[in-house]
Fold:
Amino acid sequence: MPFMSSLFTDIISSKKKKIFAAPMADVTNPAFRALCAMHGADLTFTEMINADGLLNGDRYAEDRGFSADGKPYGVQISGSTAEGISKAACLLEDMFHPAVIDINMGCPSPRIVRSGCGASLLTKEGLPAQIVRETVGAVSTPVSVKMRILKNEDETIRLAESIQDAGAAAVTVHGRTRDMMYAGKSDTAVIRRVRETLSIPVIANGDVRDEASASRVFDETGCDTVMIGRAAIGNPFIFERISFFLTTGKIHPFISERLHASDTGPSETRQRVADFIKYCDLLDKNDLFGCVNIRAHAQWFTSGLADSGNIRLMINDLHKNVKIDINDRPALTEERKQLAAEIIAILEEHYGAPWHHRSGGLRWSGPGAPADAGDYFFVPMMTPMFDLRSFPTDATIPGPSVFSLQTMTDSSRPSFSTP
Ligand SMILES: Cc1cc2nc3c(=O)[nH]c(=O)nc-3n(C[C@H](O)[C@H](O)[C@H](O)COP(=O)(O)O)c2cc1C
Structure:
């Protein structure tokens, strides 16, 4: 599929600094990836899809691997053998036509390592290269590898070289060893050495969580692509704020409003609530509620918001004693939609409807304008037809008398409408 091959090459070789969304199990489902892409992630990756599971008819692979927005993305495979991974790659290529197929050689979780997958591959002499060679030979989609560093720096370099020589189109390096799990610091010096040694693109991963850390990782590794994992959980806006910084050299206005580094300011809070609502909408539209732990995601989306401790307790209390058979997907879907609707109602009550504001000469003076409207103008985040540029700069926006948010109930999903 030459079209797909060139897609990844075009993205990875573009001259601008790029930010990818890392593969994360139970996080980067199609709805969440779409949200990351909306906020400017240049490429997103699926959570790992296990090769053996897929070959044995894993019914959830379908839910994890598709695209909810038609944008290019990578599908990640975990597995323990070259045969299993290359066969799974063929299947995934046919199922999803991703821009790149990524092989997981970094996951340190004991369950994954015990089954011979993830980071356990790194120390099996010759196996990483064999896996890449067979997979590259089996598919026409570019193949990349996501690896951790080894304790010995020279061995890390040799391993990365063997992966390149076997035909990988790119390598992502997380600058921690398998034993470090997620503790300590990602070693940017080793990532830099890998980048200086290889001729294929190297993507730097580990500890990018804001503008300063992104700049540091770009500078210290010399890579022109960084991959963000944990900082994006419940916070897809991270891609927008870092992209803003990379293009303007300035801190995004939402972030400048913060009174404390760890607490979101009013606009960022509204953005986060809007993102959660949009996320629920995407889960609903793509029939994904049944396979997503919406309570956990709600906890992540509310982390760092003012009074989030109380909000999170309230979320925990919802539907506490409801028990549903995890194999009963329709019932799970209905239950989680209902739960999501109640969470959204709590967020709106606490933080207000998620109006988006941008500085400019506009003032929202309509009924219901928030007290802090000031010189900002507020528009609903989710009105796709609403074009900010179509308003003259001295216009008055009539606020919720024009647009209102319909709170989700069990039978309807969140959407804006004109009353
Ligand atoms: C919840 C969670 C799930 C993850 N799942 C995967 C995965 O499926 N595949 C993978 O290669 N790495 C996985 N990772 C590792 C991340 O992709 C990334 O390498 C790591 O978090 C370091 O980047 P960060 O410092 O930006 O978080 C996961 C990490 C977390 C926190």
Summary: The chain has a mean pLDDT of 86. The first strand starts at residue 18 and ends at 21. The two ends are 48 Å apart (CA to CA).
